[in-house]
Amino acid sequence: MDAPKFRAFISYSHQDSRWAGWLHSALEKYRPPKALIGTVTDRGEVPKRLAPIFKDRDELPSATDLGLLINAALRGSAAQIVICSPRAAKSRWVNEEILAFKRLGREDRILCLIVDGEPNASDMPGREEEECFPPALRFRLKSDGELGSMRTEPIAADARPGKDGKNNAKLKLISGLLGVGFDSLKRREQQRRNARLVAFSVSAAAGMVLTSGLAAYALVQRAAAQRQTVRAEAQSKTARETARFLVDLFKISDPSEARGNTVTAREMLDKGAARVDLELVKEPAIQATLMDTLGTVYMGLGLFSEARPLLDRAVATRRNLQDVDPLELSDSLSHQGDLLALQAEFDAGEKSYHEAIRIESSRPDDRQSQIALANSLYGLGTLLAQNGRNADGEKNLRTALTLQTALYGDSNPAVARTLKDLARAVADDGNLNTAIPMMQRAVAMQRQLRGNEPHPDLAEVLNDMGTLLWQRGDSAEAEKFYRESLAMNRRLLGEKHPEIANGLENVAMTMSDRGDLEGAEALYWQSILMRRELLGPDHPDVGRTLANLASLQYDRGNTAGALANMREVLGIYRKAYHGDNPETARVMNVIGFWLTLNREYPEADRYLQEGLAMRLRLFSNQQPDVASSQMMLAILRDAEGKYPEAVQLAQSARAIYTSSLSADHWRTAIAESAEGAAFTGLDRLPEAEMLLTHSYAILHKDGGAPLIYRTLTQRYVDALHRREREAGVAARSTRALTVISKTAVAVQAGMHTSP
Questions:
Q1: What is the pTM of this model?
Q2: Is residue 334 within 8 Å of residue 380, measured between CB atoms?
């Protein structure tokens, strides 16, 4: 491409012309920092100014072929900026301009400015009219240059009220145009103001006496709603004014208040942490409170390594204070437990929670003690469930929910959050049909409490609702919840956060289910790289995403790569989870199944037997995970010709699935087909035909059933037909079954793993 004539082309609905005029003027007047001028980035050399910017009403003469000039201007522009609103989403011309720019091969140079509406509202039932992204923004082009069905995630700045604000939105766009960091541009804009703020705050901190409740109120808006009651002592007028100042300084650090402005949050947090460490050595009680609250907010932003020393020191300092309020120590212990659970240090986290619960249980039966006790029981319950101890986790969560309902009533953020995690624990224990209505109640409660405003708790419950629907096999409905959650978290947390990585992984799972394997693999890699950077290479969340990637690689025929990655996952889990754990057992089950299909029967048997034994130690013998292990062993025994054992295993698995899911669920059908295959081997052909006819019909009707199981059942049907011909028996129902395509049969290794 020749040197571009325009730095950017602004595409907009003429109903948004005021926004276009403001943006055009703001960009052309902007001067990059002197230190950056001449720097070479992936967008070229940073210029002294951004002009000219193309905006059609200003640039086009009145008597020409406008279509030709528009296309020429697009070809001559280094980037495109789309002003996004419901008007733009419905504008044919805006959509055509985006398509034209993408067809030039410059999709990565399209930037968005959201001014109204809601991104991806088309995926939110009842809110479709709020969609602000035109279709050409939301989907990628196919190889023929037409718009396809693969989703894309536009790069956007958000100028709506309560979001980035005009100035930050402008700087984010400029950052994208120049290929330089937003931080450096933001620092230049705020350097003078921030210097005044820091000077003022240092002076205020040095000259005033702060009480122990000061920073907790100032910094932990979200955490206070979940875990703490403000216990403020009487304050002087001067201290109250200082409190107001610090609230304003740090409020933006809380995701539920920041509405996505996490850059400023990080700057303010780092300054606050440095000040606390240097200036309050002689005020240990105040220092401990500030360290606890700053650490809690770092944790909320996914900055675990920054949170850890602050929370550990807060606990240590409060232990050594002679006149410390015991509930303040229990608060710090509970926060420490929260972080340790997120870092998968389950034994240490459980110890912190138990100490907090002992303190709170020994206190008088007052409201503050009951609130603190409920919070610690909730944290312990989620940790135990995460560590595979579902029964213990469920017990603690139910106790917490009872306390919170007595304290707050039936509709409260704490009640909704505990109900959500209780539903997850119930689902993980195999009671999906009980868990889904509980999760639906939690979603309805959060929507009622939060309205249309984004909030971390609402984003989390939407994600978890998607997970239960996906487990039930309703992938299309799950994807709607996953995408709504991901869009909300991006507004709250930015582009790099553990919750963003989690959302990318979940959307990838649903994309894989509907056959978009290439798009799913790209999202999995984004999630893995983000998790490794934020959590470290051995965190179990890295393992989980790597396991899903391995399953997709298997779907695409890369058996060696899939097995290598899944064995790496097993190593991560064995290091993170001491002893028996559901995730460890699941991975062993997957590896054993893949080895069975690869005809490596002795090694497959070792993995499957170890996985079943672990699951029987973890769960009751009627739990669906136990059924999954039995089903995979039945498939192995069919392959080995050990048919009597295969029948017993398959029948047990089918009974469990029928009770916990339904007789017509695709998982039940897999067990049924394995049983039918065993009856074929035993020459019990009428029984085999009945089972295989029923299971085949379910697996080929249910869109959630992975391809490998349909392929496997087809093989069982073919084997039955061969045996019937050899025996001279006329097949009845199975003759009418449709043979799956050669392409499907060729994908012998394909599956979306969830054994």
A1: 0.50
A2: no
